[in-house]
Design goal:
The protein has 230 residues and is of the alpha/beta class. The protein has 2 domains: 9-150, Rossmann fold; 158-224, Winged helix-like DNA-binding domain superfamily/Winged helix DNA-binding domain (Arc Repressor Mutant, subunit A, Orthogonal Bundle), CATH 1.10.10. 50% of the residues lie in helices and 13% in strands. The chain has helices spanning 5-12, 27-39, 52-62, 78-87, 104-112, 125-136, 144-152, 170-180, 185-192, 196-210, 215-224; strands at 18-23, 43-49, 66-69, 94-99, 117-120, 141-142. It has a 6-stranded parallel beta sheet, sandwiched between helices. Helix 3 (52-62) packs parallel to helix 4 (78-87), helix 7 runs parallel beside helix 11 (215-224) and helix 9 crosses helix 10. The chain is globular. It starts with a helix and ends in a 6-residue tail after the last helix. One of its GO terms (biological process) is regulation of DNA-templated transcription.
């Protein structure tokens, strides 16, 4: 039987869900996070892994958009697995560390490996799904306590802001200040009365000019270089 054109068109325009892989060595934790993810209408769990080696293998097989990665796991830890995943694919997934340990060394190492976020397992269901959407869109997420320590542990701010700020256009400086204040792209678009796609362009230029990979490092760079407006 031939499908009606209207029905086919409707199905073709259904937004694709975010595919998520969960890596954690505790079965109950994997099950709980899977229930949270699958309850969201715009995402689904495509695979779960009980250690880092399995996470690497299943990521290559299922090609998820986002990997929720525990840090301390048997055989291969989450940091090593994240590095292998991100270095071994032309189109790697976004990785969010999801751990019990509010540990600056772990956070620094997995972010340096290329992860897009570091969250604690006591995050809310809403916080977890919001983080998945954020990194899938190209943003980054950090546990608030981790962000505070990473910023305040930096060397004292210089007396004069970095000369790189002088290379910003007026609009780029506005976007930069709002990133440092913690605003999302959607919030920046609303504040500046811009299309979100335009904001993404400005964010990309800001990242390129100061030579950082993501929004988390924009905040750190701002405090290191006396560029955070308080």
């Amino acid at each position: 039987m031939t499908e009606r054109p209207g029905r086919v068109m409707a199905e073709q325009h259904q937004p694709r869900r975010i595919d998520v892989l969960i890596a954690d060595d505790q079965d109950l934790v994997r099950t709980g996070f899977a229930l949270v993810v699958d309850a969201a209408s715009d995402m689904r769990v495509v695979a779960t892994a009980s250690d880092g080696a399995e996470a690497v293998r299943l990521t290559a097989e299922f090609r998820p958009d986002v990997v929720l990665m525990d840090i301390r796991m048997p055989r291969v830890d989450g940091i090593t697995a994240a590095r292998a995943i991100l270095e071994g694919s032309e189109q790697p997934p976004k990785i969010v560390a999801l751990t019990t340990y509010d540990n600056d060394e772990y956070a620094t190492r997995i972010l340096a490996a290329g992860a897009s976020g570091y969250l604690l397992k006591d995050t809310t269901a809403e916080g977890l799904t919001a983080a998945i959407r954020t990194v899938h869109r190209g943003g980054s997420v950090l546990a608030p306590s981790t962000t505070h320590r990473l910023v305040t542990a930096r060397p004292p701010r210089p007396a004069r802001p970095s000369a790189l700020l002088e290379t910003f256009t007026a609009r780029e400086r506005e976007v930069f200040d709002l990133i440092v204040a913690g605003a999302s792209n959607a919030e920046i678009a609303g504040r500046l009365n811009l299309a979100e796609v335009t904001v993404k362009t400005h964010v990309g230029r800001v990242l390129a000019k100061i030579g950082v990979r993501d929004r988390v490092n924009v905040v750190i760079w701002a405090y290191e270089n006396g560029a955070a407006r308080t």
